[in-house]
Amino acid sequence: MSDSHPLFEFDDSQTAVINPSIHRAIPGFPERAVNTWFGDVFRGRFADSIPLYSIPFEHGAHDVHVVTRNGVDVAVFNTPVGAPAAVAILESVIALGARKFIGCGGAGIVREGFDVGHVIVPTGAVRDEGTSHHYAPVHHEVAPHPAALAAIDATLTEAGVPHDRGLTWTTDAFFRETPAKVSRRREQGCICVEMEASAMFAAATFRGVTYGQLLYAGDDVSAEEWDHRHWDSQTTARERLLDLAINAACRL
Question: Positive or negative CA dihedral for 132, 137, 140, 144?
Fold first, then answer.
């Protein structure tokens, strides 16, 4: 493919026409933050709380709340599905003042053998999406911050939570996870598939902040017939993963 393709036009300038600084830094804003894709858990947990900040977005505002655990303040916010919007919200929270992030969400399984709710720690992500290419030059994979990986591993080990580490496949189109693509990603070493990790890793690296992610095994796309496995109703697993992410953020 020609280098003139738009996705190959990486520009390393930190200044754009619209910048995250439209969200002014908040004095005393928590250095640590957790983003979660579990909208149901987030809404339930903060139903009676007043947000510290609300990030306006066309599909609806994204509130940022603060929890205190073991004397450490952690900002918690809900990220939308899909790399473009998720990264935009991440950028906004970085602008507010956060520097150390742990994300948590679900993922489809591309390699059989993982029960619903099993915890997966991505050590890298295959970039099958567009957003990361605006934050890093063309390359197949991008990685989380080592300090975030260490904090996640220590938290899971201390809590006695079984988990697997490995590659995740980040895609823009879950209706285009064809059997051939699933097989190819599996051959490359991917455990699971989701829609944001590679972009979140790339954006965090570009902005010089720490970011790592926790996932739980959700639906199964390892065979030609999709197995939903009621992955989005695993409330206990989702609540546990959010708490683990907050604990990991406190270690950073």
Answer: negative
